[in-house]
């Protein structure tokens, strides 16, 4: 290819040829994101619950975890898991490496949100629950946590949406998800506009579906009482 | 020994750090200015224009930054626009920062009660003076915590520039590892440097947030 203005002609057929592969990639993006979401929410809840234990080392330890993982780039975390840990004898496949990094990163954000949610539930709720005879665990389980989740939900939703977008970074360690497939195709046929455009469309679709689902879940939660 | 490797590579990593800081500052400057304008424009009196801007911001925000960067670096040359790696990264990140700042601005403005707007308009102020002298000054206070949070995310995400070959901290780490093969130590040092930059900012956001909770 020589210099000068190239007359780039948009080819719809490039989209139709690429789409089946891109959809396969999107499937893996959904797979890794969904698994990471479930694990990151669970880990975030556990970490947030630990901060409510008075005294002991749990609280400062969780705080340190949150600060370390929130203040370092996800890309570096992925590289440490995939390229760094083998040096210590722990070798994980790209999918597992990506999943671990996405989970520990997102869990740090989730823990912070859940902690704020737990602390936003009025103290009287806890006292009232205990005074009608609920144990400490029951008060947490049936009174405090459900309210905390409702308070935390909008911010949590934002995190989960970010997680889907962040999963594109896993392409850098060779996991064949949507971003990886898009690069793979466009580096081969040079239809960069068509392929990246379609890829952007697929990410937008995924994000919109997730936002919609979260919105429905939020409305449903509000209706429970 | 790995401690020596770390010490010897530190000057090179710090050179990369300087670029990371410069890149971040440039993007924050451009993104903040454009994002503020775009965010305020969502509230123009012409409903359709506001709605269209809102949609454009939502769509752009749904696209991963990495994809924006690939699009600009590998996609634009197809149109005859060939950017070197550094400007391509600045452009992609500024676009990202602009739309995300616009979203923060929208949130801040919407948190101001409509009565403020109506009162200012009924005093005879035009739309722009109302925004400039009444709404935005009040909204800025509420925008600060999420905006500082956004800046830390951006600083961390400048690491993505390494993927298209910009020399910054992450790239410096990668090059050091190619020479020394000590990936664990070097990435840990890089992570520590990012931490030293971002941690003060997160603390600042936390404090600004706490101050908002107290009545002023």
How does this model look, in words?
The complex is a heterodimer of chains A (about 220) and B (about 220). Chain A is an all-alpha fold and about 220 residues long. Chain A has helices at about 10-50, 60-70, 75-85, 95-120, 125-130, 135-165, 180-190, 190-225. Chain A has one domain (about 15-225): MetI-like fold. In chain A, helix 1 runs antiparallel to helix 7 (about 180-190). The longest helix of chain A has about 40 residues, at about 10-50. Chain B is mainly alpha-helical. Chain B has one domain (about 1-215): MetI-like fold, CATH 1.10.3720. Chain B has helices spanning about 1-40, 45-60, 65-75, 85-110, 115-120, 125-155, 170-180, 185-215. The interface of A and B includes residues 4, 72, 76, 169 and 183 of A.
Summarize the SSE layout with pairings.
The complex is a heterodimer of chains A (225) and B (216).
Chain A: H1 12-51, H2 58-70, H3 74-84, H4 94-120, H5 123-131, H6 136-166, H7 178-189, H8 192-223
Helix pairs in contact in A: 1-2, 1-4, 1-7, 1-8, 2-4, 3-4, 4-6, 5-6, 6-8, 7-8
Chain B: H1 2-41, H2 47-61, H3 65-75, H4 85-110, H5 114-122, H6 127-157, H7 169-180, H8 183-213
Range of strand content of chain A:
under 5%
Q: Per CATH, what is the topology of chain B? A: MetI-like fold
Text of the CATH class of chain A: Mainly Alpha
Helix content bin of chain B: over 70%
Number of E strands of chain A = 0
């Amino acid at each position: 290819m020589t210099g000068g203005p190239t007359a780039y002609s948009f080819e719809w057929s490039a989209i139709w040829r690429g789409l089946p592969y891109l959809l396969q990639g999107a499937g893996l993006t959904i797979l890794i994101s969904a698994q990471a979401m479930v694990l990151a929410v669970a880990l975030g809840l556990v970490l947030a619950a630990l901060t409510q234990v008075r005294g002991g080392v749990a609280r400062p330890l969780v705080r340190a975890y949150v600060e370390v993982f929130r203040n370092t780039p996800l890309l570096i975390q992925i590289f440490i898991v995939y390229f760094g840990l083998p040096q210590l004898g722990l070798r994980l496949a790209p999918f597992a490496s990506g999943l671990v990094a996405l989970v520990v990163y997102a869990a740090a954000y989730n823990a912070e949100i859940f902690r704020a949610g737990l602390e936003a539930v009025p103290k009287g709720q806890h006292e009232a629950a205990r005074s009608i005879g609920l144990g400490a665990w029951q008060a947490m389980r049936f009174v405090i946590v459900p309210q905390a989740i409702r308070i935390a939900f909008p911010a949590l939703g934002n995190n989960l949406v970010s997680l889907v977008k962040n999963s594109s970074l896993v392409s850098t360690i060779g996991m064949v998800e949507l971003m990886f497939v898009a690069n793979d195709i466009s580096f081969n046929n040079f239809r960069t506009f068509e392929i990246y455009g379609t890829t952007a469309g697929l990410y937008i679709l995924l994000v919109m579906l997730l936002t919609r689902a979260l919105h429905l879940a939020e409305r449903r939660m509000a209706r429970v009482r | 020994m790995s401690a020596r490797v770390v010490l010897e590579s530190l000057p090179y990593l710090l050179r990369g750090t300087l670029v990371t800081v410069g890149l971040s500052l440039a993007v924050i400057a451009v993104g903040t200015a454009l994002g503020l304008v775009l965010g305020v424009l969502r509230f123009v009196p012409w409903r359709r224009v506001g709605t269209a801007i809102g949609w454009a911001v939502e769509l752009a925000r749904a696209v991963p930054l990495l994809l924006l960067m690939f699009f600009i670096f590998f996609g634009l040359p197809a149109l005859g626009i060939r950017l070197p790696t550094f400007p391509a990264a600045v452009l992609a990140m500024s676009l990202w920062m602009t739309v995300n700042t616009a979203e923060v601005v929208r949130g801040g403005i919407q948190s101001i009660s409509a009565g403020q707007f109506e009162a200012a308009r009924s005093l005879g102020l035009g739309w722009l003076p109302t925004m400039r002298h009444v709404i935005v000054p009040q909204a800025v206070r509420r925008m600060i915590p999420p905006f500082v949070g956004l800046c830390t995310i951006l600083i961390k995400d400048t690491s993505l520039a390494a993927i298209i070959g910009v020399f910054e901290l992450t790239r410096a780490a990668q090059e050091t590892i190619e020479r020394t093969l000590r990936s664990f130590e070097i990435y840990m040092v890089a992570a520590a440097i990012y931490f030293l930059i971002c941690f003060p900012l997160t603390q600042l956001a936390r404090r600004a947030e706490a101050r908002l909770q107290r009545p002023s």
